[in-house]
Amino acid sequence: MEFSYHNPTGIEFGKGKIKEIANLIPKDNKVLVVYGGGSIKKNGAYDQVAEALKDHEWLEFGGVEVNPTVETMNKAAQIVKAEGVDFILAVGGGSVIDGSKYLAAASLYDGDAWDFLDGTAEVQKALPIGVILTLAATGSESNNLTVVSRKTTDEKRMYFSDHSYPKFAVLDPSFMGTLSDRQLGNGLVDAFVHISEQYLTKTNDVLVNDGYAETLYKGLVTLAQKWDERRTLWWQENLMYICNQALNFQLANGVCQDWSTHLIGHELTAFYNLDHARSLAVILPHLLREMIEEKQEKLAQFGKNVFGIENDNEAVIKKMEELFESVGLPTKLTAYEIDDKVIENVHGAFKSHGYLELGENGTVTLEKVANILNRSMAA
Question: Which residues form the Fe-containing alcohol dehydrogenase-like C-terminal domain (predicted)?
Answer without folding.
Answer: 188-375
